[in-house]
């Protein structure tokens, strides 16, 4: 479409195909933003590290991150009148408390980021504050710092440092290196069919074989059972449900009627249920 602000039909620079950039890539150019405006907008946003996993914050930003988080924690404790059994002075020495508080700081920033009335603070932030303080209280209680009034290092388990797992390395390696696949096979029509899995290498050579598993032919019920029930006894067009206990796919239902329950005849087309009732396979 030609620009309404020019008289000729020649495409303008912004209507024509985008030229390739320094890397040879083409595409629609982004709207122009003055460098000074872009710098100002960037300065108004959160720190570059905020929103990054705490353990992945670059070393050059860690000092700023720790100080920013401390200022936020000080505000959080004062704002919500939290006691040391919820946030102890040594919170920064506990990785679980630090993770919770950092996530809370990011969330609190996010709900107020738009600076406009909304439901985020009431529906997202404040309900989570209550759940957060409950989790913090449990963590602090398990750490034991608040009970003795000072930081308490976690206790080691024998020769292992605290909060480390004593793996059976051979068992883990065998388990992690085990691949699992599933497939669906058809049962034989008669008798029993034995199947097994064979593992081959890249050259087609056999490496291992599995245990055999026997698949028996699908068994059909000797007798077909059918039960008719009244599922809805409405005054107009009552609904019936018929259940046929058989897995054969060549069966169908025909409706019959009787004036006395002894002599039966096929219902006429005008008397057949509108949807042939509800048929249920079991």
Automatic annotation (TrEMBL):
Residues 1-32, 233-282 are annotated as: Disordered. It comes from the Bacteria. Residues 1-13, 271-282 have a biased composition (Acidic residues). This is DUF4913 domain-containing protein. It comes from Micrococcus luteus (strain ATCC 4698 / DSM 20030 / JCM 1464 / CCM 169 / CCUG 5858 / IAM 1056 / NBRC 3333 / NCIMB 9278 / NCTC 2665 / VKM Ac-2230) (Micrococcus lysodeikticus).
